Amino acid sequence: MSSGMGGKPELLGRRSQAACEPAFVGREEELALFRAALSGGRCSVLYVHGPGGIGKSALLRRFAQEAAVAGWSVARVDGRTLDPSPAAFEAEAEAVLRDERAVLLVDTFERIQGLEGWLRERFLPRLPVGALVVIAGRFPPDMRWQADPGWAEALEVMSLRDLPPQHAKALMDCCGVTDELREPLLAFAGGHPLALLLGAAVALEDGGASRRWMPDRDVVATLLDQLVGEVPSNAHRHALEICAHAYMTTEDLLRAAMPEDAAAMFDWLRRLPFVESSGSGLYPHDVAREVLEADLRWRDPQGYAAMHDRIHAYLAEKVRTAADHDALSAVAALCYLHRGNASMDAPQGGYDEGEIQEDVVRAEDAGALLRLAIAAEDEVSAARAGFWVKRRPEAFRIYRRTETGEPVACHAWLRLNEPDEAECAADPVVAAAWAHARATAPLRAGEHLAVGRSWVLPGHRGNSPVMDLLQWRMIANCLRSERMAWSYLAIRRPGQDQVECLRRHDMHDIAVIRHLGDEPYTLFAHDWRAVPPQVWLERLDRAQRRDPPGAATATMGRLAVLSREEFAEAVRKALRHLSRPDALAGSPLTRSRLVAEHGERDHPARALRDLLEQAIDSLREDPRSAKFHRALDATFLHAAPTQELAAERLGLPFATYRRHLVSGIERICAQLWHRELYGADPAHSR
To answer: Residues in domain AAA+ ATPase (predicted)?
Structure first.
């Protein structure tokens, strides 16, 4: 250890303290409260709480320096090294009982939390007036502090949170982090001081670190230990991992992902210092979320995938069944699971904070909507908006700034059942959509198409809360619609990034419409019969998880969209080939919704045979169709060499047998066509 000429040797502790000095940034509000207490304020106890690594110990070191400079004596108690007993605590803090200009700093209080009641009721009342106590721990104070009128003015509670962006950047500058490294470090750690310092130390040591830097195993392990520590059981750890993976965790979601002890696990989660509560559920600190996710992905990839699938299935079902006013939050939660996929936008802070609100359009909104459309595009486009808001006001949603009520965007989701001359004449986008549908794959009985139109003020385009809400509304419409054949989206001069994003959503640009004024529009389309909602979600999910190509299921290809006549002919042919798996494998029915929803995706020919046999067998249950069942059974299931022989076996005149057979085939075609259109669930037949 070096020393100055003829001076005292430099102390190691003083050198360590000097090294820590530049790494302390921000916390002006907390320092102001402490200085006020030193200057004779009414506060006698400062209670600082926050998750591990948030900077509580660093703040207490700064408090000690401030107190020493002001001429106060300082006593320290550290819960990590103290025996959790009143006697041991009092032995460490005894000096403060005799000095009214003393500061007692209690760190890592969560380790001795059992002393909280004794401290409040027995120890602190014995301090001289003027002494100051600072308690720092992970958990907030017991409610009995605030319920006691005697502590109402004497107690000040500080919830320590992440450093704001400017202070997080200043901390990186103190560590010597380059501009290239700052972006990935801040993206990983946000404003969490320990994560920033650990990440900076590791990244700076790695001379090859760049914008692609990611935390290594040592950083993740250290942060896990600091933030989470030991958990009571594997079930508790699993609940934590679910909480880290989902956007918001409710007891219902926990029950879907881990049925055992969901209520108890939820109660445990909500008491953790790094888990916050909101009106929508629980969510962990960002760094805790990142390290829990990274650790499980590395430690148990299969377990991670299984957990993801359970949560994904629960949220997808919630999107389909939620009330309309809850649909956006349900889609936001589902999109959050795909946050690693550029196709899906995770919730943005502006949405969380309620900066923008979605609302239905009312009669008094018509004028404001037209002015918005003119400002967003032009008068020609505004005329289209005016036409539709008069004709189909229920199709519109308007988006307002919460603070002022100012409309900044509107969206129309036009659900169209058949071409209408007036609508096609008034809106070339709708005319182009109908022309494309008729030329490509026409609508079948009971189906509809939808056209999405949006008007967004320039300042809210791009990556913004408004665009998130619009995207979530369109996804909700698509996933919740019954019997939608096509969806179309018209966008004015889309950028290449936007085009690529829509293509990743399987919305393909099919036409450029140039007669809507001076600006051309591009029309994007998706066939929901060829790629149904469940398959569409699977594609996005697999892209996010980066599953190997071989993991794709049979339904990952486009389904066949057959007319009723084509479908019936395919059923007749499949019945004739019922005993030939090779011939059934070539049937277009193996690529139909009918087979895709049967569940046996890896063996579509087997699934088709099962469906046909089930359909034949179902005719036996009704006495009126039992004769049709016998004809079909003899002809296809027991494969009589000729129809004449089948009629002979049944003891029927050939003409009667043929009538029964034809009627039976018609019944099978109608039954399976109904299932093709409506699905297996009877509720879908409405």
So the answer is: 42-225
**pTM assigned to the model:** 0.69
SS3 state of residue 508 = strand
Tokens of 373: 């459309």
pLDDT one-digit tens code per residue, 631-668 = 988 888 887 888 898 888 889 999 999 999 999 999 99
Query: Residue 188: pLDDT above 80?
Result: no
- For residues 361 and 331, state if they share a domain: no
Whether residue 312 sits in one domain with residue 298: yes
pLDDT of residue 683: 43
Q: Domain check: are 149 and 183 in the same one?
A: no
Percent helix, strand, coil in the chain, to 5, is 55, 15, 30
* Domain assignment of residue 350, yes or no: no
Give per-residue burial for 203-231: e unless 16+ CB within 10 Å, then b: beeeeebeeebebeeebbebbbebbbeee
Each residue's pLDDT tens digit, 239-295: 999 999 999 999 999 999 998 889 999 999 998 888 888 778 998 888 888 888 888
Q: What is the 3-state secondary structure (H, E, C) of 111-122?
A: HHHHHHHHHHHH
Helices (H), 397-464: 421-426, 428-440
Our count of domains for the chain comes to 5
Q: How many CB atoms sit inside 10 A of residue 303's CB?
A: 13
Domain end marker among 184, 215, 246? 215
Domain-located, residue 541:
no
Sole residue written with tokens 């820590």: 20
Token code pair at residue 212: 């692609």
Same domain? For 181 and 230 the reply is no
Q: How far apart are CA 428 and CA 512, in angstroms?
A: 11
Is 136 in the same domain as 172? Answer: no
**Within a domain: residue 308?**
yes
The domain spanning residue 103 has which CATH number?
3.40.50.300
Q: Cα(253)–Cα(526) distance, rounded to whole angstroms?
A: 31
Clarify whether residues 314 and 452 are in a common domain: no
Residues 6+ away with beta carbon under 8 Å from 637: 578, 613, 616
Range of the domain at 266: 225-337
pLDDT mean over 209-232? 73
Other Cβ atoms closer than 10 A to 420 = 13
CATH number at residue 503: 3.40.630.30
Please give the Cα distance from 390 to 393 (Å, whole number): 6
Cα–Cα nearest to 542, from 309, 355, 333: 309
Does some domain include residue 370? yes
Question: Are 390 and 428 contacting, i.e. CB atoms less than 8 angstroms apart?
Answer: no
- Helix axis angle, 643-650 relative to 654-678, nearest 10°? 100
Nearest to 456 by CA among 403, 506, 493, 507: 493
Same domain, yes or no: 605 and 655: yes
Q: Is there a single domain that holds both residue 260 and residue 306?
A: yes
Q: Give the side-chain half-sphere CA count within 13 A for 680.
A: 10
- Which residue, 621, 586, 619, is CA-closest to 604? 586
Which residues are bridge partners to 104 per DSSP? Answer: 75, 133
Q: Residue 414: in which H helix or E strand, if any?
A: strand 407-416
Q: How far apart are CA 483 and CA 679, in angstroms?
A: 10
Which of 337, 370, 396 is the C-terminal boundary of a domain? 337
> What are the pLDDT digits (tens) for 87-139?
999 998 988 888 888 999 999 898 898 899 999 989 999 988 889 999 999 88
